[in-house]
Write a structure and sequence with these properties.
CATH class: Mainly Beta
CATH architecture: Sandwich
Number of helices: 1
Number of domains: 1
Radius of gyration: 17 Å
Order of helices and strands: EEEEEEEEEEHEEE
Structural class: mainly beta
Largest sheet: 8 strands, antiparallel
Oligomer: single chain
Number of strands: 13
Helix content: under 10%
Shape: globular
Length: about 200
């Protein structure tokens, strides 16, 4: 049965980035020993890696980058994951950033970021920007509510879309989500002008 997990660092505070006015990072980590019974992931498990504070700044936030480091999830070649948010219909998961990609297979780790994904053997580009408005991506509202399941808040989510053949039980998913609230300036020139 699928389980909705929350990253170990889910409620940690954001870290502001020196030199980028207003931008901040939401670091996250999830230990695989936290899976139900410590047996690894099953199909449709989700991990809310961090919140997306859609009501930050002057009415929204923009995702300007991300990186997810995935440890080996499967000693075989079955595991498939998606990366996205829960801003679909009524708070449903949607694969905003990556849809059904091989990750954590053959005892190899994978890296997903806003440019591409590398799974130890293959590099995969992100979803086409022209089709999905992948990065930067704006969030000004949440389609769910306080009673939405499995998460009652807008979140950056990793979903297991095909279960591992033989799940691994150790390792830590880590990474960060880089955001900029609306109403803040990202560039300030020496003459005082902003852009």
């Amino acid at each position: 049965m699928a389980t909705a997990y929350v990253a170990d660092t889910f409620n940690d505070i954001q870290v502001f980035i020196p030199g980028i006015i207003g931008a901040f990072v939401r670091p996250f980590s999830f230990n695989l020993t936290s899976t139900t019974g410590g047996v690894g992931f099953v199909v449709n498990d989700t991990v809310a890696l961090t919140t997306i504070p859609h009501s930050s700044g002057a009415g929204g936030v923009m995702v300007i980058g991300y990186r997810v480091n995935i440890p080996a999830l499967d000693t075989g070649t079955s595991c498939v994951v998606s990366l996205g948010d829960n801003n679909g219909t009524s708070g449903a998961f949607q694969a905003t950033y990556y849809s059904t990609v091989a990750a954590g297979r053959s005892s190899l780790g994978s890296v997903m970021d806003s440019l591409c994904m590398f799974n130890g053997t293959t590099t995969t580009p992100v979803l086409p920007v022209a089709l999905t408005s992948n990065i930067p991506r704006s969030y000004t509202s949440f389609t769910g509510s306080a009673t939405s399941t499995p998460y009652a808040y807008l979140a950056f989510i990793l979903k297991i879309t095909t279960a591992p053949g033989t799940a691994t039980t150790t390792g830590v998913i880590t990474g960060q989500l880089v955001l900029q609230p609306y109403g803040t300036q990202s560039v300030k020139y020496l003459n005082g002008a902003t852009a």
